[in-house]
Amino acid sequence: MRFLLTFDDGPAWAPYFNPTARILDTLEKNPYQDDIKAVFFTQTRAWSGGGTERGRALIRREHAEGHVVALHSATTFHSNHRLMSREKLDETLQVGVADLLAETGVAPKLVRPPFWAYDADTLAAYRAHGLRMLLTDLSAKDGVIYVFNFSFHKRSNMLKMLAETRKRWAAGEMPAVDGATPVVVTFHDVNSYTARHFEEYLGILLDVARELDIPLADKPFYDNRDELERAALGATVDTPDGAPPLPGLWHWLWQQ
Questions:
Q1: Mean pLDDT of 213-238
Q2: Is 223 within a domain?
Q3: What are phi and psi of 218, to 5 degrees?
């Protein structure tokens, strides 16, 4: 197995101690594996992020440092794709693809739906714009933390979800790409707590894998953009049937 790290909702807008910038620094240099590459699901028109010059500069930095820049949304706010009309969704996807092409010179191949909300029509719209949907196996559950920006359950949460993922892997339900099974892990690079503790999160992932006796690759995190993108594309979901369970309450809400 290899951990495939992903980040949602960024880039962050903060002029000082920017969470996205701090995470990029940690990916580049940390005690476990330097030059880790990740997938950043960006909000290209967010009023407090990708829609600002600072946000666009961070998108360019992500690409320049060898990460995969993907699409999360191209609306002012974190809008639900599943609740949009097909016409409106097509419009926003076209805008988002054009935004990332302008900033990176590369059209995105990956998309992740805001709120994890999708259905067959959403998937059809993604395909029409050359996008494939990547969900997740593990989630830090750090999307929105109101008032108190901390977590008491970082390790126990990852241990529980990785144990469930291990069952799927042992049952042959997860694809192998380039000789390893990608385990998709989701964080949010707009979360300052995640940014401050990201090095700790990396250690937790390795620790719980050892506890569960999960065989990891010599390099447990992806460090090559092409390999990372192939692994992510290999783990994408093309139909609602057989998709991995969504994190937390989102599974109950959308996959009933």
A1: 97
A2: yes
A3: -55, -40
Task: Tell me if 24 sits within 8 A of 195, measured CB to CB.
Answer: no
Q: If we measure between CA atoms, which residue out of 173, 178, 170, 174 comes closest to residue 231? A: 178
CATH code at position 215: 3.20.20.370
**CA-CA distance, 133 to 253, in Å (whole number)?**
18
Q: What is the pLDDT of residue 48?
A: 87
Instruction: Please tell me the predicted confidence (pLDDT) of residue 150.
Output: 53
Residue of 216, 213, 152 lying closest to 185 (CA atoms): 216
Q: Please give the backbone phi and psi of residue 133, each rounded to the nearest 5 degrees, phi first.
A: -90, 130
**pLDDT at residue 251, as a whole number:** 58
pLDDT surpasses 90 at 147: no
Q: Is the pLDDT of residue 76 over 80?
A: yes
Is the CB of residue 143 less than 8 Å from the CB of residue 7? Answer: no
Rounded to 5 degrees, φ, ψ at 186 are -115, 130
